[in-house]
Amino acid sequence: MTADALPFPALHATHGGIWIASPDGAVREVQRGEAIARAAETPMILLNAPVIGARLGYGEVSGLDLLELFAFVHPARFAVPTPHGIAVALGMEAPENDAAAAPFLIRAAQALLDRLSDRAWPEREGGWTSAQSLFRLRWPWAAAVAERIEVERLSHEAQLI
Question: Is 52 helix (H, G, I), strand (E, B) or coil?
């Protein structure tokens, strides 16, 4: 995986429908069975995995929960756990409808990961160590997080030499 783009699809489920966005931006509405199958076979970006699991009737759904990534990048910062709430918290344009929320989740995840490379990221101190601990615990976001922090850490060390 490169630090430039996320290779993961996103899944957004509401009471009105279920949408999957591919990394290339294509979005399609799917039925519950297909959503469960896709979530079981490939890591998917989700917003609030327990709620998505309840909406799918599949409590064991797991994936790349955007709320967890938000909490890592901005610990102790509040965000309403909806696409609109995440957009407000990140200063991004909110999706216009539920179908637009799935590709938004990919963009929001990318924006959060991009903040890890920002020298002004206020939580930088301890971020690398925390990422390594989470990697050992098999946190789904750990590889993407550690890669971006490591790229910055190695770049910074090279400038010191």
Answer: helix
Mutual angle of helices 66-73 and 127-136, in 10-degree steps: 150
Whether the Cβ atoms of residue 65 and residue 48 lie closer than 8 Å to each other: yes
What is the rounded CA–CA span in Å between residue 33 and residue 25? Answer: 22
Fill in the amino acid letter for 72.
F
Q: At residue 151, does pLDDT exceed 80?
A: no
pLDDT at residue 50 in the model: 93
Please name the helix (run of DSSP H) or strand (run of DSSP E) that holds residue 64, with its range, or none. strand 64-65
pLDDT the model gives residue 160? 52
Q: What share of the chain is helix, strand, coil (3-state, %, to 5)?
A: 50, 10, 40
* Percentage, residues of the chain above pLDDT 70: 90
What is the CATH architecture of 10-160?
2-Layer Sandwich (3.30)
